[in-house]
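We now fix the convention by which a protein and its fold are recorded. Think of the row as the fold of the chain written in a discrete alphabet. Here is one such record, which you should read through line by line.
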Amino acid sequence: MITISGEGLTLSQINAVSKGAKIALSQDPQVLGRIEASQGRIEAAVNNGEDVYGVTTLYGGMADQRVPVERMIELQHIALWHHKTATGPRLPAEDVRAAMLLRINSLMKGYSGVRLELIERYVTFLNAGVTPHAFQRGSIGASGDLVPLSYIGASVIGLDPAFLVDWNGETMDCHSALNKLGLEPLTLRPKEGLAMNNGTTASTGVAANAMGRGARVLALGLATQALLAEALLATNQSFHATIQAIKPHPGQVFVGSLFRNLLEGSILIRGEAAGERGHRKGKLIQDRYSLRCLPQYTGPIVDMMAVAAKQIATEANSANDNPLVDPDTGEVYHTGNFLAQYTGVACDTLRAQLAMLLKHLDVQIAMLVTPEFNNGLPPSLVGNPDHGLNMGLKSLQLTCNSVAPLVQFYGRSMVDLYPSHAEQFNQNINSQAMNAANLAREAVDASEHFLAAALVFAVQAVELRANTVRPGFDASDLLSTRNAALYRAARTVALGAPDAEKPLLWNDTEGFIQDKVEGILTDLREGKVIAAAMADTQAEIDAFLAA
């Protein structure tokens, strides 16, 4: 049970709730008192005839038009009603749940002028597993994520049965869901409709889930590179602490330390210290750039992903609707906190860094399959060269070559790239955060596919390498402790436990490569065998991103 107070919500907690974890609202008297005070201030403003945007006036470019007292409640319902304009595919249920959670967290800060009862409606829906239908398209992330948040809010209060929800795989109208929950449709008070749809919490919910998955891609991408380093007989000198200490960017220092841990105890990695096996005789005295410059190349990736993670976490703990009411002073602020620029920039950053990570892996795979560069492995990692017709992983490399450019395309900037003349030029800048966040989800999806293929290369490579060191293809005894765990996990979900008699792929026609990739990909997304093997590495990555 995760307690929500408006403060301190972490990305890992958001990810957990998106997958079904339950929440409770803080019972701290100060927190509840702030909610009550801000709602009371809105009521007082109405009673005193004060001008408050979206309460006593219409919205946006029509905010010069006054609303009579007797129509103020109607206005709040219209705030949700007239945004039923969405097109395109549905938002995944996990992203909708994250959006609901962040709306709860924002409203719990006590700056939005809503009743506690309204916030509790969201909690009831979340904990019962009732997920409103919302859609990916329609928000420019400027006056908040108006369209998706309106679908969610209208479902929660039961505005109209045309708003649909999913309950344990069954689609029903929101009135039917409320009836099953023992609730009646809720009539809004002044400001409440605007507080439900005017905010950044839909795009930020999508972003938080994408960042959570992106952190797993980052961890596995680095760990896979450690496996490839063993297959390529790399040197550990590239990760020496002194090298990183004299160029002390945090990410570079972190990556150097991580790889020293990942490669500790490897029989295959070359040591350069006195008494250790040095450079390969007759070969380059130093590794090629994708190995030798690995800390320098991937260090900025982890640095920039840490920045993005912090931006998303900060936005998730913000008050981001308009207007905002200071519960301590009663001041009413007409603000722009609804602009999701930080979320959009963070998602642009995430996509760009995933593209950089995959580019690096793609280069290493290219070395791995090329005899001129792979230090004695067969071309395209053919398992049984005596067969005469085997082509190994030649075709799988094409898959990687198709996915990496796609993620690079997704890595282009989305935020505020296009002019906006929306809504009578009122929303004349925008963040495009929702589009940026949806693209981040797509980039993570593709990156996971790439990593599943990359792990097939890694497993095949270390098994073939093992057989060049001593008879037998099971590489477990030659790899570092942490890499051996990842190797066994990936091997198991791809085909089965390591086999000393045969590598992952022996003769091409003995099984489809697709099945091996899909076995790994399914396990990655379910977070089971490979996740367990990656626990230490993932913990180090998560700690760095959250520091």
Q: What stands out?
A: The chain has two domains: 2-199, 209-546. The longest strand covers residues 87-90. The chain has 20 helices and nine strands. The mean pLDDT is 94.
